[in-house]
């Protein structure tokens, strides 16, 4: 919605006005304005369109997810590096159901840009392993599966990893 620089400018202006309110003796207004500026600082690090796209993704609404992602104009300039990684990660998940070549491109770009959570990196590598397995690249799929297994610290993907390993034995 707002460019990342504008979010910081708005937060700075709100903090300046909060300081003015503290000087004038309006402590309650100053505290409220500081809390309000924290919203803009939070949205600098977490893009609001990507957050809304993740909410749509949780409901398995791929069309809604694509709609929210399409509202981001020129992601290279509007998003930070990590946000660009998640932008590509979400696109990879969307395309993994229809176009595997496109999904592979998005997942690789997301891993190159970086993802914050180990679970997300493990999920991206697991998806890439599935794509490599579908394209009969067994060696690449095996290494990606091992990397995903190492990153899955909470054991949330163990069933999917075991299922893929069983399918790999059949190839």
Structural overview:
- There is one protein chain.
- The protein has helices spanning 4-24, 27-45, 48-58, 62-70, 75-78, 81-95, 100-113, 118-134, 138-151, 158-170.
- With 171 residues, it is mainly alpha-helical.
- The protein folds into 2 domains: 1-45, no CATH class; 47-170, Serine Threonine Protein Phosphatase 5, Tetratricopeptide repeat (Alpha Horseshoe).
- Helix 1 packs antiparallel against helix 2.
- It is elongated.
- It starts with a helix and ends with a helix.
- The mean pLDDT is 89.
Q: Do you know the CATH architecture of the largest domain?
A: Alpha Horseshoe
Shape: elongated
Which regions have little confidence, pLDDT < 50, spanning 5+ residues?
none
**What is the radius of gyration computed over CA atoms, rounded to a whole number of angstroms?**
21 Å
**CATH fold title of the largest domain:** Serine Threonine Protein Phosphatase 5, Tetratricopeptide repeat
Q: List the helices and strands in order.
A: HHHHHHHHHH
Number of structurally distinct domains:
2
> What is the count of DSSP helices, taking H or I runs of 4+ residues?
10
Offer a concise description of the structure:
It is built from 10 helices and no strands. It is mainly alpha-helical and 171 residues long.
Which secondary structure elements does this structure contain, and how are they paired or packed?
Elements: H1 4-24, H2 27-45, H3 48-58, H4 62-70, H5 75-78, H6 81-95, H7 100-113, H8 118-134, H9 138-151, H10 158-170
Helix pairs in contact: 1-2, 3-4, 3-6, 4-6, 6-7, 7-8, 8-9, 8-10, 9-10
């Amino acid at each position: 919605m707002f460019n990342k620089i504008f979010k910081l400018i708005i937060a700075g202006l709100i903090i300046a006005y909060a300081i003015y309110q503290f000087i004038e003796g309006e402590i309650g207004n100053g505290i409220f304005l500081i809390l309000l500026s924290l919203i803009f600082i939070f949205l600098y690090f977490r893009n609001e369109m990507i957050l809304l796209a993740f909410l749509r993704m949780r409901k398995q609404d791929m069309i809604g997810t694509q709609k929210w992602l399409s509202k981001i104009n020129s992601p290279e300039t509007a998003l930070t590096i990590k946000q660009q990684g998640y932008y590509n990660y979400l696109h990879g998940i969307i395309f993994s159901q229809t176009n595997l070549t496109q999904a592979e491109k998005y997942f690789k770009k997301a891993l190159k840009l970086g993802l914050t959570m180990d679970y997300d990196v493990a999920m991206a590598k697991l998806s890439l392993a599935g794509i490599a397995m579908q394209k009969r690249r067994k060696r690449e799929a095996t290494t990606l599966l091992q990397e995903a297994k190492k990153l899955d610290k909470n054991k949330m993907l163990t069933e999917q990893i075991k299922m893929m390993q069983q399918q790999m034995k059949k190839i």
